[in-house]
Amino acid sequence: MTAIGMFDSGVGGLSVLRETRRLLPDSRIIYVADQAYGPYGDRTLDDVRRRADRITQTLTDEGAAMIVIACHTASAAALHYLRARRSPLPIVGIEPAVKPAAERTATRTVGVLATTATFQGELFSSVVSRFAAGTKVIARPCPGLADLVETGADRSMIEAALREHLEPFRGRAVDQIVLGCTHYSFLGGLIAELSGVQVVDPAPAVAAQVERVARQNGLDRGGSPELRLLTTGNPHSFQERVTALIGLTGEVARIDI
Ligand code: DGL
């Protein structure tokens, strides 16, 4: 039991994996992309919670001593549930980065892009009430956007989708845009360019938290550094996306969960 287990509906969590590998180059990491069931954003929170539970079980069976939910939607659906059910297994999740955005905004107006399911979860309303008192938070659900990243859609399609999703922020003094889905981390530069607004990407802060928890649990040195990339979908297309998004080649395998 010496590995860090990490999962997402697909390639979005690779944004967290990339930052984590920078901070913990000697750790063993097992990453599961649940591509056969993704995207999660249009599923019910109950459905996503069931998947998160099964994947967590698989990751611990494979030797994970800590879990990272590298997905806002799965965190919204299952973070509290899994912490209670799997205690004392350390579990790091992601909440929309409303707190840093509320601290930085000069106009007291921030925009949040996330999946429909993430906005339905209690985690989102709880971060807004805890950290954004006195700040106007404009929530924009973006159905279909994660899938464009997942499948590697071309730039013109992504740009067209983003222009539509950024529309509600125009003319409303938004000066921070929170990326509330790990897939959107790969669009941060484009979102900043199209909107002219500062983007808040949670991936580095989540990776820093993963590093803290991993060190507390002795998982910063797994013996032999190793990265296993597993997908419930097609390993060949997953490998291509991994290479395109984070420049890693490595062993990718299919897993039935
Ligand atoms: N990457 C995910 C998130 O952070 C899920 C996107 C999806 O599967 O719809 O919310």
Strand tally: 10
- Cα separation of the termini: 20 Å
What count of structural domains? 2
Question: What is the typical, i.e. mean, pLDDT?
Answer: 95
Q: Remind me, CATH topology of the largest domain?
A: Rossmann fold
So, CATH architecture of the largest domain? 3-Layer(aba) Sandwich
Write down the overall geometry.
globular
Oligomer: single chain
Structural class: alpha/beta
Bound molecules: D-glutamic acid
Low-confidence stretches: none
Q: Beta-sheet strand percentage? A: 15-25%
Please estimate the helix content. Answer: 40-55%
CATH class of the largest domain: Alpha Beta
Our Rg estimate from Cα atoms comes to 17 Å
Order of helices and strands: EHEHEHEHEHHEHHEHEHEHE
Question: Can you summarize the main beta sheet?
Answer: 6 strands, parallel
Number of helical elements: 11
Describe what you observe in this structure.
By secondary structure, this protein is α/β, with parallel strands linked by helices. It has helices at residues 14-23, 45-61, 72-86, 98-104, 116-120, 122-131, 145-151, 155-166, 188-195, 203-216, 235-246, and strands at residues 3-8, 28-33, 64-69, 91-92, 109-114, 136-141, 176-180, 198-200, 226-231, 252-254. It has two domains: 3-94 and 204-254, Rossmann fold (3-Layer(aba) Sandwich); 98-202, 3-Layer(aba) Sandwich (Rossmann fold), CATH 3.40.50. It has a six-stranded parallel sheet with strand order 4-3-1-2-9-10, sandwiched between helices. α11 links the parallel β9 (226-231) and β10 (252-254). The model has no long low-confidence stretch (mean pLDDT 95). The radius of gyration is 17 Å and the shape is globular. The protein starts with a strand and ends with a strand. α2 packs across α3 (72-86). D-glutamic acid is lined by residues 8-9, 12, 38-41, 71-73, 115, 118, 146, 181-183.
